[in-house]
């Protein structure tokens, strides 16, 4: 089995840090990720820098990233202005977020769910004309910090409406880490029946220690694209207690032991996680940097 990992530490990881990381360190994180074998990297976010100052230097980051054959850089886009910036910066992919609940959508994007779908549809057409790969992420697909439970039928109805604009990929995001494997299987299987031609991707947080179980439930249901963040850093600044993503190195350990191919070198990602802890001045949540691989790497 081949699985694609999307490295999200440069965007989703760093956006939740209390202080912005320097431009050279952001570029170094991306370079290290590329050197480790990661080929899809969510590098930047083209959002209002006043709302997410940690990612205000998106254009400068994209101007400095290593451009190598087979490496695809994604940028988060919320509106037409963001897409204009993404196109000018030379991203390969865009990721447009549609939040599953009005309460979080208004805090995160300043719009309702209905307006979010309208934005996605408009951006999808423009991005397709520009030749960009287009992912739409359904955020808070498993639960909302303000509205509580999010019904499965509601999320699948969003899938149906989103799929009408022919995305290349639909991602389910467990923004606050409340999902469980049974719900993951239900959503993935439901989405496959609604839009069987669309690639599915999953983005899990380990807030309540279910992130890795959810990742393997997604694989069992047929998903072959998973997000992960080196060091396990990250979270949503607009969702209370939305702590770190599943860690790239910890996920890789299990995938490697199961002989699931990713093309990514676990040892290199461990090294990057250790380096990242020094950059941030604090330990990262990932465990593999402390425990090491088994059998121990020579």
List keywords for this structure.
298 residues, alpha/beta, 8 strands, Hydroxymethylglutaryl-CoA lyase, lyase activity, lyase, metal-binding, HMGL
Written account of the structure:
It contains twelve helices and eight strands. The longest helix is centred in the middle third of the chain and has 17 residues, at 113-129. Strands 1-2-3-4-5-6-7-8 form an eight-stranded parallel barrel, surrounded by eight helices. The protein is α/β, with parallel strands linked by helices and 298 residues long. Helix content is 42%, strand content 16%. It starts with a strand and ends in a 7-residue tail after the last helix. Helix 2 packs antiparallel against helix 11 (266-280), helix 3 packs parallel to helix 4 and helix 7 (152-163) runs parallel beside helix 8. The chain has helices spanning 9-13, 23-35, 58-64, 80-89, 102-109, 113-129, 152-163, 181-194, 211-220, 248-257, 266-280, 288-291; strands at 4-7, 40-46, 72-77, 93-99, 133-139, 169-174, 199-204, 225-228. The model has no long low-confidence stretch (mean pLDDT 95). It is globular. It has a single domain (4-291), classed as Aldolase class I (TIM Barrel, Alpha-Beta Barrel).
Instruction: Tell me the strand percentage band.
Output: 15-25%
Spatially, the strands of the biggest sheet line up as 1-2-3-4-5-6-7-8
CATH class: Alpha Beta
Radius of gyration over all CA atoms, rounded: 18 Å
Give the SSE string: EHHEHEHEHHEHEHEHEHHH
**Silhouette:** globular
* Total count of domains: 1
CATH topology: TIM Barrel
pLDDT averaged residue by residue:
95
Pfam family, one: HMGL-like
Protein name: Hydroxymethylglutaryl-CoA lyase
Keywords: Lyase, Metal-binding
InterPro entries: HMGL, PYR_CT
């Amino acid at each position: 089995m081949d699985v694609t990992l999307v490295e999200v530490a440069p965007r989703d990881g760093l956006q939740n840090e209390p202080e912005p990381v320097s431009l050279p360190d952001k570029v170094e994180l991306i370079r290290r990720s590329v050197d480790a074998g990661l080929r899809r990297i969510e590098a930047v976010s083209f959002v209002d820098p006043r709302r997410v100052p940690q990612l205000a230097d998106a254009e400068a980051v994209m101007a400095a990233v290593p451009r190598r054959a087979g490496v695809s850089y994604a940028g988060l886009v919320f509106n037409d202005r963001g897409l204009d910036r993404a196109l000018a910066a030379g991203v390969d992919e865009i990721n447009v977020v549609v939040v599953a609940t009005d309460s979080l959508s208004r805090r995160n994007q300043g719009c309702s769910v209905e307006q979010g779908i309208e934005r996605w549809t408009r951006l999808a057409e423009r991005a397709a004309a520009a030749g960009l790969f287009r992912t739409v992420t359904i955020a808070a697909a498993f639960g909302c910090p303000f509205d509580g439970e999010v019904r499965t039928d509601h999320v699948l109805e969003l899938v149906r409406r989103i799929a009408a604009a022919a995305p290349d990929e639909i991602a389910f995001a467990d923004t606050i880490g409340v999902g469980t494997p049974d719900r993951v299987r239900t959503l993935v299987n439901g989405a496959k029946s609604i839009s069987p031609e669309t690639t599915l991707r999953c983005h899990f947080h380990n807030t309540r220690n279910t992130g890795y179980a959810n990742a393997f439930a997604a694989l069992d249901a047929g998903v072959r694209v998973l997000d992960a963040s080196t060091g396990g850093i990250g979270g949503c600044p607009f969702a209370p207690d939305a702590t770190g993503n599943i860690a790239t190195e910890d996920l890789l350990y299990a995938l490697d032991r199961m002989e699931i191919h990713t093309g990514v070198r676990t040892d290199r990602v461990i090294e990057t996680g250790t380096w990242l802890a020094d950059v941030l001045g604090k330990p990262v949540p990932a465990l593999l940097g402390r425990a090491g691989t088994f059998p121990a790497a020579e």
